[in-house]
Write a structure and sequence with these properties.
By secondary structure, the chain is of the alpha/beta class. It folds into 2 domains: 150 residues, VC0802-like (2-Layer Sandwich), CATH 3.30.2130; 163 residues, Rossmann fold. It contains 10 helices and 14 strands. The protein has a 7-stranded mixed sheet. A hairpin with a 5-residue loop joins strand 6 and strand 7. The protein is globular and about 65 Å long. Bound molecules: S-adenosylmethionine.
């Protein structure tokens, strides 16, 4: 039976932000309990649709209860849903190897009972089985849709190649998986804050041409890299504030930004460049949240992006993020 409780799965270090966000957005929610990376709240109108727009939640929905075994897990799930739902089994803390391997065992045990479909369509229910070594399984369910991860636990497990000069390779790949954006091979990207070049490398490997700006140096391996279809980077060793129309390709479809600047400053540069890109289809913008004031204003950053003539704007914290979030916008 569904309970009057909701749950949130969050990055372990930013769980306090997730708690604040839920309590601010849902006046009726009362904090119930937490474990690292998992928060629950009593909520009188709990439903699987809960939490769709939360930024600091990788997964959110309605609790079904705790289970000591795989059979108890199945028993918690309403019978009509068992075969039709997608099943997402994941470690509560993806950095904990024991939990990750236990999650794999639970996933295999469910698959042996025919419960293995994992990719949901919009409007379908996902059963979330949250695994931590030495603890009962936590079971919840959520309604899949835009803004939700289609992979279990919001953990796409991006492998960063050894040749990548930074972990930002994972950030752009995760943002593309989360948003479902799939820039066409051969199209052009404008990138602000490219150095040392992890994200540039990821985009070149996807066959995208990149026009990049940063006052810092781009790693030589990225400068010299040639991706599928001859994709290369054109690098300007300059700050975003100095970009002018003649530096920009007029056919750029995607704008990517990851500058270590306060959000209002970074977004001012982004808005200026966006206004010079008439064929833009989407933007992937990393927003640094280094102090409390910046965190409290997440909805303001989203509105500033919406005002840049984007029709659909969503934000989330990615698994590889620390004190930051990403805004993905589409025209
Ligand atoms: C987190 S790093 C970017 C990582 C990079 N995207 C990657 O994939 O490796 C932040 C970058 O912002 C750059 N930055 C700071 N102020 C900038 C500005 N005004 N214009 C362009 N880049 C700026 C810094 O030089 C730094 O390289």
């Amino acid at each position: 039976m569904a309970l009057p409780f909701v749950f949130v799965i969050t990055n372990v270090p930013t769980a306090p932000l997730a708690k604040r966000e839920v309590l601010a957005a849902h006046a009726d929610a009362r904090f119930a309990f937490s474990r690292p990376g998992l928060l629950t709240f009593k909520h009188p109108s709990a439903s699987p649709a809960f939490g769709e727009a939360l930024v600091f939640a990788r997964v959110a929905g309605q609790s079904l209860g705790n289970a000591a075994s795989v059979d108890e897990t199945i028993a918690l799930v309403p019978e009509v849903l068992r075969a039709s739902a997608a099943w997402h089994v994941f470690a509560r803390d993806p950095e904990d190897a024991a939990s990750v391997s236990r999650a794999a065992q639970v996933r295999d045990a469910l698959a042996a009972k025919g419960l293995s479909r994992s990719t949901p369509s919009d409007g379908e229910i996902v059963i979330d089985v949250v695994v931590a070594e030495g603890e009962p399984l936590f079971v919840g369910h959520h309604l899949h849709g835009r803004g939700r991860w289609s992979v279990a636990g919001g953990l796409p497990e991006v492998v960063v190649p050894e040749t990548s000069p930074s972990r930002a390779f994972a950030k752009i790949e995760e943002a593309l998986v989360w948003s479902g954006l799939s820039p066409k091979r051969g199209s052009t990207v404008v990138e602000l804050g490219a150095s040392p070049g992890g994200a540039t490398l990821a985009m070149l490997m996807r066959g995208l041409h990149v026009v990049a700006f940063d006052p810092g140096e781009l790693d030589r391996r990225v400068r010299d890299f040639v991706g599928p279809g001859g994709a290369r980077v054109t690098f300007h060793e300059r700050a975003a504030g100095s970009v002018s129309k003649q530096d920009l390709p007029d056919d750029a479809r995607l704008l990517v930004s990851d500058m270590n600047l306060a959000p209002p400053v970074a977004l001012r540069y982004v808005a200026r460049v966006r206004a010079m890109l008439p064929k833009l289809e989407a933007a992937v913008l990393t927003i640094k949240l280094n102090d409390e004031k910046m965190i409290e204003q997440t909805s303001r950053w989203i509105e500033l992006v919406r005002a840049m003539r984007f029709a659909e704007v969503r934000a989330t914290q990615l698994p590889s993020h620390r004190q930051e979030m990403v805004i993905v916008a589409r025209t």
